[in-house]
Structure formats: structure tokens, C-alpha cells
Write a structure and sequence with these properties.
The protein is α+β, with helices and mostly antiparallel strands. The protein has 14 helices and 21 strands. Strands 1-2-3-4-5-6-7-8 form an eight-stranded antiparallel β-barrel. Strands 10-9-21-20-19-18 form a six-stranded antiparallel sheet. The protein has a three-stranded antiparallel sheet with strand order 11-13-12. The protein is globular, with a radius of gyration of 23 Å.
Length: 466
């Protein structure tokens, strides 16, 4: 359960099937392990048993990671590491260990709501979903209904029913903006329109937006500026001529050339190691180069972290403060959480942004409209166009300025979209030709997310030409 695996951006292609477990354990037996425990870097985690599916979960913040029972007091985490619980002299659980790390139980008293385990507090067999148009909260997001949108109400009803009956578990929200209006908005489990949600790597697309704003306002001269010029106080290892050529644009396109590709197990740089380094900037820019700047695309979390710090140095304010004074102010985003500190204090959150799903939808709509919001050019149009255009290929997908290009097939019809995405199923999809934005948040951490399937099976088919 190390941070190495709990917050990794990699998506595992397979996961253990609970029905095939060799060791059976009852819900009552699982509750023995419930409690608040010590964890890495002076933090804590919760361990709780689900009454819905009889699974033990490790919970960090609001992210749940299942533990698979092997034998009494022994489980495997999602990285297939052994999680060994130990007992005191009274034969009561006192803590757990993973490898050489040992964590004590702090208290067995946990505040757990029933709703955290169930998509809706209804009997799924007798519950019939009925569509209701989103309410206008006067938060800057215009609302409407499904009439004349082209969206298929029956398909959307089926989607919600399948989320509720468990066919698609751990979906937290689904929002649809069509023709500039929020016409569909549904929340599940403990989530609602007011609750902040982890964006994970979808945060990167916000860093991209703030870079464009910083350049437009003159804080940064251009995307062609050299990265190392912003850190004269540092002395870096492997300070080659190749490293001196890295530009801000290379960070935006994941073409820095730094040896930190998360999809390469042999890469020197490792974001999980970086998470507990004293200075993430020092760690990142100390890495050797495995390619020239502007060369191959390599998905490296160090790149947007460095970029965020450059924005801070250029504007002389924190990245969240700059976002609050510019992008968020213009979009009417008032409620957010963003601890951007590239040091061990961000070891469990990884400098990620937390937003309401509605505000994620605003961000998608802003890019759909080429950076224009209520008559104001919040982000320069040419920056939006460049951000969504292909500059590199990362993990086999076309890549812009910390934005992805990805297609989805819907009943044989292919739709190309622009995508901000994060581990667990956090996705902001922009389908410009359809004048459509979809937002899905979920809790599929370190496993295959159903977010793409929800789009391709229940939303996009409505627009297929008959």
C-alpha cells in the first residue's frame, strides 16, 4: 500500500476477481481490521470493510484501494504486495506492515457513512430512475434540459440504472454540456454538486491553461524560454548542453527528454520516489537525459510540476493564488483545494487540484469555446488551439499541451475528442464537432475505468447518423 502504488498514474490492465479468491472471509471478520492507522510521511489512512461487497479497503483521503485476503491477517494490496496485520497480546489487531514499513493502529473509531458504499440509498431492484433537468445555481453555468439536444434520454436512463445496480461501480458523477448548457447532471455515493473531487492528472491541463495565461499577461516571455534559466540558484547533476535546451514547450508536450517516463520500468526517474524527496524540482532536473529536448514523447509527471513552479517564480505568487486571480475568478470557481507544494508535504496528494464536477465542466466548455467565457477571452484563442493540436505522441496517443487526443467508437462510428484525464476515471471530454462536453468522475484508482464506456455506449450513440 505504499504511495508508490496508491497514487500512481499508471492504469493496471487487469485486476483480481473477488469471486475467485482462495481465502473466504466474512464481513464480520473483515471489521476486525477497521480503524485509523499510521501511514507514510506522518500521515494516516483508514481501513474499512464494505458491507456491500465484503471487501476490505485502504482509504487515503477519499480514494479507496481494495485489499485481497490470502489467509488470516494477510492481504495483498493492488500492487500484489503483502499487507500483514499484527496483533497485540490480547489477540486484537494492533497494526500492519508492508515490507519493512510498520504502521500502528491509532483508533478503531471511524466515522463511516452508509452512503459511501452505495451509489444510491435505494433498493436497486425496485428503483426506477427518472430524469430531472439540472437546476440553475447561478454559478455561471447555464442549464437546460434534454429536449432538442439530440441526446437519447432512454440511453441515459439505462446508464444511470446500471450505475445504481452495480454494473458500473464507483462512478461518482456524470455531467453533460450540450450547445453551451448543462443538460444532464447526476451524482452517486457521497458525491453531489457541492463536493470537491480529486482530479489526479487532469490537473495537468489546468497547469497548461495557466501557462498560456501567464504568457498572455507578460509574466512569461514565451513558450520558447529555457527551463534552466528559471532556476539560477540550483546546481544540477547531468547538466549537459542537451538539458540546457529544454524549453517550456517541451514540458507542455512531455518532450523534455528527462529520463522519467512512467511507462518505462527502466527509467531512472520515478514519481513515487520523487514524492518524498525534499525538493521535487531538484530531483527532476537532476535526472539524466535519455533523449534530446523536443524528441520522443514520454509521460513524466515532473514536467508539469516544473512548469507550475516556473509560473510561481514568474508571477511571484503561488500557483493556486494565480489560478484564483485569473482563470478561476473569470469562470466563477470559488470553491477549490490545491496544495501545490513540490515537496514531501504533497507526497499523498501529488500537487493535484480538487474541484466540483460543475467547475470541471466549465473548464471543458471554456476550451470548447476557444477560451471565451461570457464574452471575455480568458485564455488566448491561439493558445487553446495550440493546446488541443498534436505536438507529440505519448503512450501511443496524440498529445497537445498537457491535453490528450483520443477517439471513442460508438456503434461503429468513431468520434475524436480532446481529453483532460486523471487516474481513477477523472475525465473532461471535449467533442467540438458535436458542441459537446462530458465530465465523468470516478473511483477506479489503479484499475480500468468505465468512463470511456459510459461515453461510447450511452452518450455518443445518440449522434450517430441513422
Amino acid at each position: 500500500m505504499k504511495k508508490t502504488y496508491l497514487l500512481t498514474i499508471l492504469t493496471l490492465s487487469t485486476f483480481l476477481v473477488y469471486a475467485q479468491q482462495k481465502y473466504n472471509i466474512t464481513y464480520k471478520q473483515l471489521t476486525e481490521y477497521q480503524g485509523l492507522y499510521e501511514y507514510l510521511n506522518n500521515t494516516t489512512l483508514k481501513i474499512a470493510a464494505s458491507p456491500k461487497d465484503t471487501i476490505l479497503y485502504a482509504i487515503i483521503n477519499e480514494s479507496k484501494y481494495y485489499l485481497t485476503p490470502v489467509e488470516k491477517d494477510l492481504f495483498l494490496n493492488m500492487a500484489k504486495e503483502k499487507v500483514q496485520f499484527f496483533r497485540n497480546k490480547q489477540n486484537v489487531i494492533a497494526g500492519f506492515s508492508v515490507g519493512k514499513d510498520r504502521f500502528n493502529l491509532l483508533t478503531t473509531k471511524l466515522k463511516l457513512s452508509k452512503q459511501m458504499w452505495y451509489p444510491r440509498l435505494h433498493d436497486p431492484k425496485n428503483y426506477q430512475y427518472a430524469y430531472h433537468p439540472p437546476k440553475n445555481d447561478h454559478d455561471g453555468l447555464e442549464t437546460g434540459n434534454l429536449d432538442n439536444t439530440g441526446l437519447d434520454k432512454k440511453l441515459l436512463q439505462e446508464m444511470v440504472q446500471k450505475i445504481i445496480d452495480g454494473t458500473y461501480p464507483n462512478v461518482h458523477s456524470v455531467l453533460i454540456i450540450k450547445d453551451g448548457k448543462l443538460v444532464f447532471e447526476e451524482y452517486f455515493y457521497e458525491h453531489d454538486k457541492y463536493k470537491l473531487h480529486e482530479l489526479r492528472s487532469a490537473t495537468k491541463s489546468f497547469v497548461s491553461a495557466l501557462t498560456g495565461i501567464a504568457i498572455d499577461k507578460g509574466y512569461i516571455k514565451s513558450k520558447d524560454e529555457k527551463v534552466l534559466s528559471y532556476f539560477p540558484e540550483y546546481t544540477f547533476q547531468h547538466n549537459t548542453e542537451e538539458k540546457k535546451q529544454i524549453t517550456l514547450e517541451n514540458l507542455l508536450t512531455n518532450q523534455s527528454g528527462l529520463d522519467c517516463d512512467v511507462y518505462n520500468s527502466k527509467a531512472v526517474g520515478n514519481e513515487s520516489i520523487m514524492a518524498y524527496e525534499k525538493d521535487w524540482i531538484q530531483y527532476s532536473l537532476d535526472l539524466p537525459m535519455n533523449d534530446r529536448a523536443g524528441g520522443i514523447g514520454q509521460y513524466c509527471s515532473s514536467n508539469p510540476i516544473i512548469l507550475g513552479r516556473i509560473i510561481e517564480k514568474a508571477t511571484q505568487m503561488s500557483l493556486p493564488a494565480f489560478a484564483q486571480q485569473t482563470l478561476f475568478k473569470d469562470l466563477g470557481i470559488k470553491n477549490f483545494a490545491w496544495h501545490f507544494k513540490p515537496d514531501p508535504s504533497s507526497g499523498e496528494t501529488f500537487c493535484q487540484l480538487n474541484l466540483r464536477s460543475r467547475d470541471m465542466a466549465k473548464f471543458g466548455l471554456l476550451y470548447l469555446n476557444d477560451g471565451l467565457w461570457n464574452g471575455k477571452q480568458v485564455i488566448p484563442k491561439d493558445w487553446v488551439v495550440q493546446s488541443l493540436a498534436k505536438h507529440s505522441v505519448v503512450a501511443g496517443l496524440d498529445y497537445g499541451y498537457l491535453w490528450w487526443t483520443k477517439y471513442l467508437d460508438a456503434d461503429g462510428v468513431r468520434y475524436y475528442g480532446k481529453l483532460a484525464q486523471g487516474n481513477g476515471g477523472q475525465k473532461i471530454y471535449i467533442f467540438k464537432e458535436l458542441n459537446l462536453v462530458t465530465v465523468i468522475t470516478a473511483g477506479h484508482y489503479n484499475m480500468q475505468s468505465s468512463s470511456n464506456e459510459l461515453n461510447s455506449k450511452y452518450i455518443l450513440p445518440a449522434f450517430n447518423k441513422k
